[in-house]
Amino acid sequence: MTQTKLIFMGTPDFSATVLKGILADDSYQVLAVVTQPDRAVGRKKEIKMTPVKEVALEHQLPVYQPEKLSGSQEMEDLMALGADGIVTAAFGQFLPMKLINSVDFAVNVHASLLPKYRGGAPIHYAIINGEEEAGVTIMEMVQKMDAGDMVAKASTPITDEDNVGTMFEKLAIVGRDLLLETLPGYLSGDIKPEPQDESQATFSPNISPDQERIDWNKSAREVFNHIRGMYPWPVAHTLLDGNRFKIYEAQLAEGQGQPGQIIEKTKKSLLVATGSGAISLKTVQPAGKPRMAITDFLNGVGRTLEVGDFLGK
Length: 313
Hints:
Blueprint: E1 4-10, H1 13-23, E2 28-34, E3 39-41, E4 46-48, H2 51-58, E5 63-64, H3 73-79, E6 85-89, H4 97-100, E7 105-110, H5 122-128, E8 133-140, E9 150-157, H6 164-188, H7 220-228, E10 236-240, E11 243-253, E12 262-265, E13 270-273, E14 278-285, E15 292-293, H8 294-299
């Protein structure tokens, strides 16, 4: 059996799941893996490999980590490998057209139902905007971001129990399976890619620090979606006594009050009013403290809070 020779490009766990699927399929030979450079993470600034690099090293594959592909020696080396095609999944860099044109095909596994949510944070925006479903699109790579013709799509529901982390896990599996199911038909010409409707395109740029802050004037549903759409990263926050107060998890609750006002406090719960309705805080992190359950917060730093106090000020 003749194997299709691939270069794989990706960075986070989402990409690693797709890469593992390709490596388990005898139809493909991965010649090299390209991922973002190792970065310092956490308070201790420890240098950490990307999940994709970890998988590549486990399979003894060559790994390339250029800070920027365009004009790099790494790109020249990749073009000399003789790959048939490129598969990307949440790589984090634009691919130069010179590289794309050097292979027979280049496809991307994108975590949205294109043409909606082009860009780097499609899952975040889908949850924040209250979408009922999310999905994955396999598309051809072109010079314009996430604008290539679509090879295949698959969707999955977003439930109230979901957040960015759970949806990444679900969509990684959806993307892996969709790629492996459709790539043979695409390569044989049996699957004809369809162009995107540009008039329906929306965008999901990377989340900015300003977007992380909670707007208590919004409805309880919108605030709830905002918190889920920032968890487990970059994490939604508000102010408490003028200091940043992170809110990791919350639930919808009954109640009314002024936006940001504490309307109920017990030993185990803290309810905050929104522009319409309320939410119950579940997991928080006060400034200078570790992440904690709301019960631990109320037994410690939060003991001085009273009904009528405000968050966001």
